[in-house]
Write a structure and sequence with these properties.
This protein is mostly helical and about 160 residues long. It folds into two domains: about 1-40; about 50-120, Winged helix-like DNA-binding domain superfamily/Winged helix DNA-binding domain (Arc Repressor Mutant, subunit A), CATH 1.10.10. The chain has seven helices and three strands; from the N terminus they run αααβααββαα. It has a three-stranded antiparallel beta sheet. The termini are far apart.
């Protein structure tokens, strides 16, 4: 009996929606939510440690903290939290800019450079494999659909 109740608790809520269009929309959003979570966890996210280390590596190993924040569209506090953890792990160092003492320069350590290289390889491998289940025509179609959804959703914010 416990198995049945447990399965019912895990049943996606969209399955219980009566209206077919609403159920389909909810199912699509549920799938997109899973994709977003998967990308964040396995693809390095858009603003986590891996993309920040990779960005620093591509920029020659160092850049102003303010520039990092603007590249990732992060609030100063959110970026500072990620950087503090990376600093604690020995991946970066933050120093004052000698020309502007108010500004912090974020630099990769030797270990941070090694980690950035490893993260970049993993991100490239993920990009190669992420859509291997789709034909080139299906990838083109998906790209077009996502562009249209992106434009529409942005218009909802206007």
């Amino acid at each position: 009996m416990g198995d049945i109740k447990e399965r019912e608790l895990c049943r996606p809520r969209w399955m219980d929606l009566a209206d077919p269009q609403e159920r389909q929309n909810a199912h699509i959003l549920d799938g997109l939510g899973f994709c977003g979570h998967y990308l964040h966890v396995h693809g390095g996210g858009r603003s986590g440690r891996a993309p920040i280390l990779c960005t620093l590596r591509k920029a020659g190993g160092a850049m102003p903290q303010r520039e990092l924040a603007s590249r990732f569209e992060l609030k100063a506090g959110s970026l500072s939290e990620v950087l503090a953890k990376a600093e604690e792990a020995g991946l970066i160092e933050r120093t004052r800019d000698p020309q502007d003492r108010r500004q912090l320069i974020v630099s990769l350590t030797e270990e941070g450079s090694r980690q950035a290289d490893e993260d970049q390889r993993a991100r490239e491998e993920f990009r190669r494999e992420a859509f291997a289940c789709l034909s080139p025509a299906e990838r083109d179609q998906l790209e077009d659909v996502l562009v249209r959804i992106n434009q529409h959703w942005r218009s909802l914010d206007d």
